[in-house]
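Example with several molecule types.
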Amino acid sequence: MSREYAVLAVLAAVTVVVGELTWVRSGVFGDRGYRITMAICLFFMVLVNGWLTKLSDPIVLYAAAEKTPWRFPWDIPVEDYAFGFAMLTAVLMRWRVLGRRLEARPSVPTVAP
Amino acid sequence: MDRYQYLLLMGSCVAVTLPLEFLFDARVWRRPLRTAQTLWPVVAVFYLWDAVAVARNHWWFSPTKTTGIVLPLGVPLEELVFFVVIPICALLTYEAVGNLLDPARRSTLVGGRLVRERAA
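Resulting structure tokens for the full complex:
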């Protein structure tokens, strides 16, 4: 019972949150668009992840010893939510930071509305 | 056909989110450089995580539902596709939501086309 996946998943989520607040500062957590996006992604994640992990006919299989016994809903390991949160939040943080950099560059042509 | 199941699932994610690019003018696929710049470090980290997880038997993959194509460090092709496709779905959603929350941003971004749309 080493539960390495559970540990790594929590570590990844915490790293992303701490990284955002102390280093990247993309402002993603204050963005309403981010929170709505994550809610929409969560809905579709349950569908896709549910299909990948369904115990009746799984595509991805997990070692019981490396995770918590909790799966919700259907057979989705709860660790996957931390995994997905970390991955998508990191991506949206970078997207915002790169966008800010592009906007700051005066050579980018802007079209007046 | 069954061994393409994971890839087909990823393909359906691309297909379902593709309309966001055009109907809500998400402009993710049309900004390939910014998208690639955004994705590469995150893909790299999660690819390595996958390599560790496979090596340490945290998870494994159904041999009947995957192609069996294995990339360096033992990562299945499908997993790399996942790490690229799912973030793109999220970016499309984020940009579509952003445009819906702030229509002015959308018209500024694309100029004439949407201004005409708004005037119509």
